Amino acid sequence: MASSARLSRLEAEVVECRRCPRLVAWREEVARVKRAAFADEDYWGRPVPGFGDPEARVGILGLAPAAHGGNRTGRIFTGDRSGDFLFAALHRAGLANRPQSHRRGDGFALSGAWITAAVRCAPPANKPTPAERDNCLPWAVRELELLPQIRVVVCLGAFAWDAAFRLRGRVPRPRPKFGHGALVEGEPWAVLGCFHPSQQNTFTGKLTPAMVDEVMLVARDLAQSSQPK
Q: C-alpha dihedral over 192, 104, 38, 16, to 10 degrees?
């Protein structure tokens, strides 16, 4: 309960962040103009906090909220095709109570997992700058400090992979190469690579349900086999 309260206080700080002028302008423009399919909806249009189980042993790190996904719904990976693919995999791995989620408060819940992003605001063209990444990473540092049971972080794509090593405190030399299923052990948690569940990857077959299932099962096994901190 104490951890949940601290995470809630951190979330209240995150959603008020305005550190990156370019991202602030873009997320608010998208929320104002909207996509025609969502014209009648109220967009979140703010930084998107992480969510999940405060006792999580599996962390999942994405790139940033989608302009008409998390930036609309207020929850990372919620309301877009990438999230549909990811949430179905988490359900198959026993880390989510249902295979779909379309909005905050719809009953979707994670068990043993926590989802967050390297950058909390939707970036133009899905491409945050290195400076924006560095501005945002302190939020993830504080977040992970409040999730002391995390034993493995699944990185969705190369951007998240790079961010994860920065979150661990130092980037190893030589720099570990990102790849689907790549695993780098270490403290305070292992880093596990997974292709991002973007439509570009899932529609072309670069990432299949079986492939993401394999990664999630490795993550679950690592979490279960490691001793709590």
A: -80
Q: Please, are residues 166 and 136 in contact by the beta-carbon 8 Å criterion?
A: no
The token pair at 108 is 């979707």
List of long-range contacts for 87-95, beta carbons under 8 Å, 24+ apart: 88/209, 89/197, 89/209, 89/212, 89/213, 89/216, 90/60, 90/216, 92/209, 92/213, 92/216, 93/213, 93/216, 93/217, 93/219, 93/220, 94/220, 95/58, 95/216, 95/220
Residue with tokens 């605001």: 121
pTM for the model: 0.94
Domains of the chain: 2-225 (3.40.470.10)
Residue 168: CB atoms within 10 A of its CB come to: 19
Encoded amino acid at 77, one letter:
F
Q: Which residues pair with 194 in a beta bridge?
A: 156
Mean pLDDT along residues 22-30: 98
Amino acid at 214: E
- Tens of pLDDT along 83-121? 999 999 999 999 999 999 999 989 999 999 999 999 999
How far is it, in rounded angstroms, from Cα 147 to Cα 116? 12
